[in-house]
């Protein structure tokens, strides 16, 4: 059929749905209990937003918003379904593992980070993904241990000062 016979309004462009934080190939989707709750809360908010679409009068706007929300919900459902909750109580309290709150010294500066899942990671909140290079360098270490961390061409020494769960 010629495009001359198709109404322009029917030619909706698929909305751009930003991808979720990527997981490295082969990695499980580990989350803290708080991370799982945040995913479920996000789903609840998207479903509420979807319900509010009924109030939008212009059908094309409503359809576009619904496509966007449905796309986000699909990606979110995949994350929720693949989430493997790690309970901190099951961790060795003397060793850095997933969920640990770590206090360490690097470049004579004391820093604090928690090792969390991909969707929870936020450097501003001092949360790093378990597959990040610094988390990998710290994992398995104990309080008082010193380890090297490669940052570009520079090697930095890290001393673990405290571990909490």
TrEMBL record:
PANTHER family: TRANSCRIPTION ELONGATION FACTOR GREA. The keyword Coiled coil applies. GO terms for molecular function: DNA binding; RNA polymerase binding; translation elongation factor activity. The keyword Coiled coil applies. Residues 36-66 form a coiled coil. Keywords: Coiled coil, Elongation factor, Protein biosynthesis. Residues 1-28 are annotated as: Disordered. It comes from the Bacteria. Gene3D superfamilies: Transcription elongation factor, GreA/GreB, C-terminal domain. GO terms for biological process: DNA-templated transcription elongation; regulation of DNA-templated transcription elongation. This is GreA/GreB family elongation factor. Pfam families: GreA_GreB. InterPro entries: GreA/GreB_C_sf, Tscrpt_elong_fac_GreA/B_C, Tscrpt_elong_fac_GreA/B_fam. Residues 94-165 form the Transcription elongation factor GreA/GreB C-terminal domain.
């Amino acid at each position: 059929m010629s495009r001359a016979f198709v109404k322009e309004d029917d030619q909706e462009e698929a909305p751009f749905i930003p991808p979720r934080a990527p997981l490295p190939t082969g990695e499980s989707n580990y989350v803290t209990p708080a991370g799982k709750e945040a995913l479920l809360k996000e789903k609840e908010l998207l479903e509420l937003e979807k319900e509010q679409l009924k109030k939008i009068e212009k059908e094309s706007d409503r359809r576009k918003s619904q496509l966007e929300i449905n796309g986000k919900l699909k990606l979110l459902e995949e994350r929720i379904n693949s989430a493997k909750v790690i309970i901190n109580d099951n961790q060795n309290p003397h060793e850095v593992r997933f969920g640990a709150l770590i206090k360490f010294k690097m470049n004579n500066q004391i820093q604090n980070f928690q090792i969390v899942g991909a969707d929870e990671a936020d450097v501003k909140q001092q949360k790093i993904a378990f597959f990040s290079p610094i988390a990998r360098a710290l994992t398995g270490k104990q309080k008082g241990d010193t380890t090297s961390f490669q940052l570009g061409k520079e090697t930095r020494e890290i001393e673990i000062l405290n571990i909490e769960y």
